[in-house]
Write a structure and sequence with these properties.
- The chain has about 230 residues and is α+β, with helices and mostly antiparallel strands.
- It is about 40% helix and about 25% strand.
- It folds into two domains: about 90 residues, no CATH class; about 120 residues, Four Helix Bundle (Hemerythrin (Met), subunit A), CATH 1.20.120.
- The strands form two sheets. Strands 1, 2, 3, 4, 5 and 8 form a six-stranded antiparallel β-sheet that branches. Strands 6-7 form a two-stranded antiparallel ribbon.
- The model has no long low-confidence stretch (mean pLDDT about 85).
Length: about 230
């Protein structure tokens, strides 16, 4: 079966795609700055198989961030509309999903163990590993409880104890119990949750981290000068 492979430089240069951005919120238009586009064919008298892989350096037209897109398709994965189309398998580097940005440089305010678990959970979520992401969210709650010396023989009791020691409100604890349950299902039943559920859970956990660790450190840093000049009363 004859095989031909062609390497084309900038065949897809200038294309624009609506993609999740690393920094912007939601999807933005990305432009292909440069590309190496591979085209292949295998054939005999009765059969033709063709495939393509576009390796693209792309730039968000909003924040100007540079990243990488790899888009692959082949003649076996062919769908139909009024014009016909190839199904495209798309991978983005660094990995991300729509709506997930993370807390960026603010992770420096987190305790080291909390920061490590947070980064690993974010990586699992961005790389579409939903079971691991669910387990990571639960582990993140466990780590926060341990760092705050919460008491209790299980995570349920420890989260409730965070109310007693003034770290959480009752309403916030009730929300975290939902994430605890999500993590339990992922760990014990190996059940993946949807991107929407995991994205919302991560948003909630990030708000928790900001309220417990990040905002207090930022306030302390920004207002320490003013406190030196505070009048005695």
């Amino acid at each position: 079966m004859p095989l031909t492979i062609d390497y084309l430089i900038n065949e897809t240069q200038g294309e624009e795609h609506s993609l999740p951005c690393i920094k912007c919120t939601g999807k933005t238009t990305h432009k292909v700055l440069t590309s190496v586009d591979v085209r292949g064919n295998e054939s005999d008298d009765d059969y033709l198989f063709s495939w393509s892989t576009d390796n693209q350096i792309i730039q968000c037209l909003g924040c100007k961030t540079i990243s990488f897109r790899k888009a692959s398709s082949n003649s076996e994965d062919y769908g139909y509309d009024e014009n016909g189309y190839y199904d495209v398998d798309q991978k983005l580097y660094p990995s991300r999903i729509d709506g997930i940005k993370g807390i960026g440089n603010e992770t420096r305010y987190l305790p080291s163990k909390v920061r490590q678990i947070y980064k690993e959970t974010l990586m699992a979520l961005s790389n579409q590993a939903p079971v691991l992401a669910g387990i990571g969210l639960r582990a993140l709650l466990e780590t926060v409880c341990k760092e705050k010396n919460a008491k209790g023989h299980n995570l349920l009791k420890k989260i409730d104890n965070l109310i007693s020691i003034g770290v959480l409100t009752s309403a916030n604890a009730a929300i975290l119990h939902k994430i605890r349950t999500l993590g339990n299902v992922a760990a014990h039943k190996v059940k993946p949750h949807s991107d929407t559920q995991l994205s919302l859970a991560m948003d909630i956990v990030e708000h928790l981290l900001k309220n417990i660790y990040i905002l207090p450190k930022q306030v302390e840093s920004e207002f320490e000068v003013e406190s030196e000049f505070e009048d005695d009363v």
